[in-house]
Structure formats: structure tokens, C-alpha cells
Design a protein that fits this description.
The protein is mainly beta. The chain has one domain: Metal Binding Protein, Guanine Nucleotide Exchange Factor, Chain A (Beta Complex). It contains 2 helices and 10 strands. Strand 6 and strand 7 form a beta hairpin.
Length: 141
């Protein structure tokens, strides 16, 4: 367990999580695929140990009869999802990509693996570019 900070893409939503899990889960359900444009990687934390910065930039919506999801009102970043009924109420799954530091985070479970689509499998011969490679391309724009 560790204390973690994070923010959305534009910075309008920021948070501090106390005693956050050191692992994450990947969900392949169709709702997550539509919401996150692919599998959703989430890190679980007790909801009472998650605090957001000032401002009302989070939009929470009921995504199913058992859960709700949140996005940044400004940039649209996926922020979290959480169950609204059942034994796991009181826990929030924060989007892994929002964390300022993911060092040491390990995937420990995958959900809805029967719904994985072809984009979840990475071919060995795919093009791979470094930050420097991409910066050279962007500089030409």
C-alpha cells in the first residue's frame, strides 16, 4: 500500500489516495471498452481514502444498475468507476493512467477475458517508437 497522487489530462481534476493498492486490474467488458477506448486499467482504493482537489470538475454518471463512472468535465479523462451495490461498495477503482507515479505497479487480475478483442493482443513485429522518435515527427507539424 502506498500514498499516490494523480490528475486528469488537463489538471482540472487532481487527487490524493492514501494506502492505495500496489497492483491494478484490467477490465475487458464492453462498457470499459467504450468508456476507455480499450481495456480499463484501474487501481483500487478505499473511497474514504481518496480525496479530490478543489473545484467541481468531476462528472459522475450511473453506467449500469450496479456501478457509476466519473470523467473530468473539462478534458473528458476517465477518472474512476465504483460499484453502487454489493460487497465491494466503499472501494473506488481509479484510472491507472492518472497516477503521477506507477513505478512498481503490477497487473494482478483481468476481468471479462472472454470479451477481449483483437486489439488486446500485441504482434511482435509492430512498430515501436520512443518519445524522442515521436518528438521528431511532431516537430515537423
Amino acid at each position: 500500500m502506498a500514498d499516490k497522487t494523480g490528475r486528469c489530462m488537463c489538471g482540472a481534476v487532481s487527487f490524493v489516495a492514501t494506502d492505495m493498492a500496489g497492483n491494478f486490474s484490467r477490465c475487458h467488458c464492453k462498457m470499459c471498452q467504450r468508456w476507455a477506448s480499450g481495456p480499463y486499467d484501474g487501481v483500487q482504493v478505499e473511497s474514504t481514502k481518496l480525496s479530490f482537489g478543489e473545484g467541481d470538475n468531476i462528472s459522475v454518471f450511473r453506467s449500469s444498475h450496479f456501478a457509476e463512472r466519473a470523467n473530468c468535465k473539462i478534458c473528458g479523462s476517465a477518472v474512476f468507476w465504483r460499484l453502487t451495490s454489493g460487497p465491494y461498495v466503499g472501494k473506488t477503482s481509479v484510472a491507472l493512467g492518472l497516477l503521477d507515479d506507477t513505478d512498481g505497479m503490477m497487473m494482478t487480475s483481468e476481468l471479462f477475458v472472454d470479451l477481449k478483442n483483437s486489439t488486446s493482443f500485441l504482434p511482435d513485429d509492430r512498430q515501436q517508437m520512443t518519445s524522442e522518435d515521436v518528438a521528431k515527427i511532431v516537430a515537423d507539424f
